Each structure stands twice: as C-alpha cells, then as structure tokens.
C-alpha cells in the first residue's frame, strides 16, 4: 500500500485534485486498465500505439482508488465516470516517476541500483536471496522508465532494502532511472558489446553504464568488476569502490562442484565464508561475488549471507534447468543473449556431465550493429571449439553461426531438434528475447513428456 494521503500524492506527483474519492490509501500503481483492481491508482500513460488515458474510466469502473490523467480528460472523467479520485497532470509519466521518488524517500531504506551488459537480473535475484534484510526488488523486466517507478511504488512500508535493476538502451537512460531511485549503492555487473547498434562503441557503452556511478547519493558506494578498465575514467573521489571477481576485493578463492551446485569459498575484506550455491555455471559464480560485494557495501554480515545462499533461485528463462525423460536435461536460458552471455552459456553447456550429446539451440543476438555477423561466427566457432556436438540455429541472424541445422522460427525448430536429440543429452536454448525461444522450449518439453511411456 502507498501510505500517503491523497493530498500528499497529488503534491508529490505534481498533480491537481479534480475530484475527491475514498478516504483510504491506494494499494499500488498500475498502467494497464485490464490489470487494475480495486484500490489501485491508475496512471493513464500515452504510448506509441494508444493513450492509456482512454481507459481511465474502465479503471474507475473496476474499483480503482483513483486515476492520474491529462487535464482535459480529468475534467470529463470527474463529471461522468464511476467514483474515485481524479487527478490531473500535464505528464502522467512524469507524475508516476515523481511519486515513486517520493515513496522511495518515504521508505528511507538503502537502495541498490544494478546495471550492466549481462547478469543484472541474476545479481538482483541473488541479492534478494542472500541479503539479510526485508528486501523488495523489481520483478522480471520492470527496469525501465515505466517499470522501475511501478516497482518502487509496490514496495511495502516495512521494506528494509530496495534492489532495483536498471535497463539501458542509450545515453541518459540510467541517469533518468537514478533520478527516480536515488541509489546508495551502484553496481555494474560488466561492460560488453551490447546495444552496439545504438551506441556504436564499447567506450560509449561504458559511459552509459557509468551514469549509475554519477547517480548515487552522497557518500555512495560503487560495486564494479575488478577487470573493468573502461570504467576507471568514471570513478570519482566521493565514491567508495568495492571490486569483485578475480583480483578484486570480493572473489571466489576456490569452488568445487557438488551435484547440481557449487561449494565456493568467497573471500572479502572482512574474511571468508563457504557458500553452498544451487547452480554450477561459472558466470553465476561471478554474479554471486557481485551480490556478496553489494552485501559488503551494505555492511551485511558475511556469515548470514552464506547461510542464506542455498535459497537462491533465478527468474524464469535465465538458466532454468529442466529435467527431461531418459536422463536428458534442457537449460532454458532464452531471456536474452549477447556475445558475453552466449559464450558463458556455451561454456556451461560444455561442462554439463551427461552420457549423451550436447546440443545448442541458438537464436540470433540482436542490436550488435555492423559487426553482428562476425559476433555470430565467433560464437559458432567457440561452440565447435568446446566440442558441442550439434548447433541448431533459429531465425535469420542465426544463419551466421554456421549451424549444423537451421530453422526459420521457434516452432519449426521443435521437429528439427526432436530428430537429433536423444536420451542423456544436454540441450541449451539461448537467444535474444525477440526470437521468442521460450515458445520452442514450451513446445519441445511438452512433446517430450507426451512421448514418455505411461
């Protein structure tokens, strides 16, 4: 619940009260009238295809506590719509963002802002599991100028730590998110060739990611990779910097595989502890050291973080392990892909111990600019160098993997993979979000189980 009075909400959102409603407080903020329930505060945002303000009356009909819409629409709603608060704001998106900033300040708890070319969501998931606080984190992809304020406004009043993932597609976007979240700890997971189509160079990508360092509160702390030389020009004296990874302040001193997990000794400036981690991927071990470094920045006790580590779980489509009949396993890692995460996923596939073959079902990697074909060729060559038995490309961009088999779309890929996969195989599914490889996974898993003997 947003524990602010209607007058305070209007003031913080920069809105005018056109009509009063119930005396209670709104439950949460919403922007989709179809998902707006009783007690919600609906913001009518203007999008590329539709003006959300057109659906404000529907939200009030459904029992919304109130709506925030443009002034011309507010006057009409006040006279004709179902009961509820009607607030007028020249820019409902700016009003949403301003109200989220006010609620962040009202909570008064530390805020961690996480960005990076890969691993943002995984680090966020690990933080949510291991940090010994009442932690609220943005769900799934609520990491944009719209999603992030919605996530902040969903934080309950008892929140002790707010962890927010920040997406970036161009210069200035992380700065915009920092103005809303005002992070106390800024974490950058890595800097790699992502969004080259938009930003052009790795230096420009580093500059865009580094906006989170400039956006931290006074006496803030930064958590960055030990090997991220591209970030050095963006560090400044008022930042306390904690590095992670090999050669950093927080690092994995050793790790050993234990079934489907790792036992890792993680060292920090305050000592070391044994972490029982429920995954085996090397890149997620690095993500874990980043999360532990965030904990160090927050003065979280190391022993408590280690004790909570077995409870780590990841968001769907990110390294999700699915057991199949006949001892086969499918690694569903198709939320997104870029050259860094693709290489890491292939390395993990090569490390999986199975009696059968290793098959990579790879969609294209988007937004790589003029060098896209070369990045795909390098990924294909890396897979073959690792001894991956078969590569199945999906979609036009995937032709450049020089795959053993090719399918035009995820649905067509199902029969292609069925023809070559067998018992005891390990199958990786990886590609950019636009390819939609989750459709392949859902169909392939369903058909595999349908064939299982009763």
Description:
The protein is of the alpha/beta class and 454 residues long. The chain has three domains: 6-91, Udp-n-acetylmuramoylalanyl-d-glutamate--2,6- Diaminopimelate Ligase, Chain: A, domain 1 (3-Layer(aba) Sandwich); 108-311, UDP-N-acetylmuramoyl-L-alanine:D-glutamate ligase (3-Layer(aba) Sandwich); 320-450, Alpha-Beta Complex (Protein-Tyrosine Phosphatase, Chain A), CATH 3.90.190. Helices cover 35% and strands 21% of the residues. It has 16 helices and 20 strands. The strands form four sheets. Strands 7-8-6-9-10-11 form a six-stranded parallel beta sheet, with helices on both faces. The protein has a six-stranded mixed beta sheet with strand order 15-16-20-17-18-19, sandwiched between helices. Helix 5 (120-130) packs across helix 11 (282-297) and helix 15 (410-420) crosses helix 16 (438-450). The protein is globular. The termini are far apart.
User: How is the largest sheet built, in terms of strand order?
Assistant: 7-8-6-9-10-11
**Which structural class should the secondary elements be placed in?**
alpha/beta
Number of helices: 16
Question: What's the shape?
Answer: globular
């Amino acid at each position: 619940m947003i524990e602010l009075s209607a007058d305070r909400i209007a003031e913080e959102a920069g809105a005018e009260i056109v009509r009063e409603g119930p005396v209670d407080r709104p439950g949460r903020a919403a922007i989709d009238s179809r998902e707006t329930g009783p007690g919600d505060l609906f913001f009518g945002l203007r999008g590329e295809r539709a003006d959300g303000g057109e659906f404000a009356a529907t939200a009030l009909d459904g029992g919304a506590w109130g709506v925030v819409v443009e002034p011309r629409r507010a006057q009409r709603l006040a006279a004709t719509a179902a009961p509820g608060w009607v607030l007028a704001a020249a820019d409902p998106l700016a009003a949403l963002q301003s109200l989220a900033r006010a609620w962040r300040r009202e909570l008064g708890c530390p805020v961690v802002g996480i960005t990076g070319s890969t691993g943002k969501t995984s680090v966020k998931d690990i933080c949510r599991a291991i940090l010994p606080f009442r932690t609220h984190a943005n769900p799934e992809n609520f990491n944009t100028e719209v999603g992030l304020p919605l996530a902040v406004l969903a934080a309950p009043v008892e929140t002790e730590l707010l962890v927010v993932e920040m997406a970036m597609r161009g210069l200035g976007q992380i700065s915009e998110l920092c103005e809303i979240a005002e992070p106390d700890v800024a974490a950058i997971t890595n800097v790699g060739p992502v969004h080259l189509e938009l930003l052009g160079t790795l230096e420009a990508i580093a500059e865009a990611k580094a906006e989170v360092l400039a956006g931290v509160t006074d006496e803030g702390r930064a958590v960055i990779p030990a090997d991220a030389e591209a970030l050095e020009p963006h560090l400044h004296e008022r930042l306390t910097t904690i590095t992670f990874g090999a050669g950093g302040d927080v690092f994995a001193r050793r790790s050993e595989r234990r079934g489907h997990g790792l036992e890792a000794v993680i060292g920090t400036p305050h000592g070391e502890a044994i972490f029982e981690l429920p995954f085996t991927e090397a890149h997620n071990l690095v993500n874990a050291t980043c999360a532990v470094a965030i904990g160090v920045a927050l003065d979280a006790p190391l022993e408590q973080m280690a004790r909570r580590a077995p409870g780590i779980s990841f968001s769907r489509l990110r390294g999700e392990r699915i057991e199949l009949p006949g001892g086969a396993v499918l690694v569903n890692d198709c939320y997104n892909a870029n050259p860094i995460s693709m290489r890491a996923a292939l390395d993990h596939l090569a490390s999986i111990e199975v009696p059968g073959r290793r098959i990579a079902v790879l969609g294209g990697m988007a937004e790589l600019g003029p060098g896209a074909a070369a990045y795909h060729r390098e990924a294909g060559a890396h897979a073959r160098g690792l001894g991956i038995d078969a590569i199945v490309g999906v979609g036009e961009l995937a032709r450049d993997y020089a795959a053993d088999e090719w399918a035009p779309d995820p649905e067509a890929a199902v029969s292609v993979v069925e023809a070559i996969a067998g018992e005891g195989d390990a199958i990786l599914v990886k590609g950019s979000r636009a390819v939609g490889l989750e459709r392949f996974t859902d169909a392939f898993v369903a058909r595999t189980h349908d064939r299982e003997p009763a």
